Amino acid sequence: MKEALAIAVGYLLGSMPWGYWLPRAIKGVDVRRIGSGNVGAANVWRTFGLRWGLAVAALDVAKGAAAALVGTALAGEIGGIVGGVAALVGHWRPLFLRFERGGKIVATTAGVTFALAPLAALAACGVWVAVFLLGRYSSLASLAGAVSLPLFAYAFGADWPVLGFTIGASAAIVVLHRANIRRLLSGDENRFRLRRRRAPLARGGALRSQE
Q1: pTM of this prediction?
Q2: Domain boundaries, the chain
Q3: Could you read off the pLDDT of 161-172 as tens digits, one per residue?
């Protein structure tokens, strides 16, 4: 019963589409109609700038951590894991977007892992930052961080259930980035510009020009 409650709470927390809500509330724009159409932090950053991307990333990390912490409080480590998994499912297919496509679970996975294995999460985030600064591909940085996460979890002595979570989440991130992988291999993936050029908004909330 407690595990079921952890799943329900985790899914509801994960379903909060901050990458959709913030641009809609502040800019009056549906982020699903611009850029990649994704409601994750990367698309918000690319379209509206670093501070909005960081705000969405922080909120997505926070909801993942909250889901795992609530689950842990309800049903121990297993509760934290199932609550975290439910948050990832909610982020991918959010209730508040009528189960339409959500984000690619990178920041939410980081949040869950910060609650379950903080040192591993911190190290994997360091890999993300290093790879991003070197190549300026957010997708490549996300893939590198995801692949490194189970390795760091093992190195820092995470329990087997937590290690299993990091392996599963890493695999899910890779699968959700399969289109990005194809573009990286073909040389068609877009790099981030560290200084964003502002694009004027057209009527109806769509950007007239996109990167």
Answers
A1: 0.89
A2: 2-186
A3: 999 999 999 999
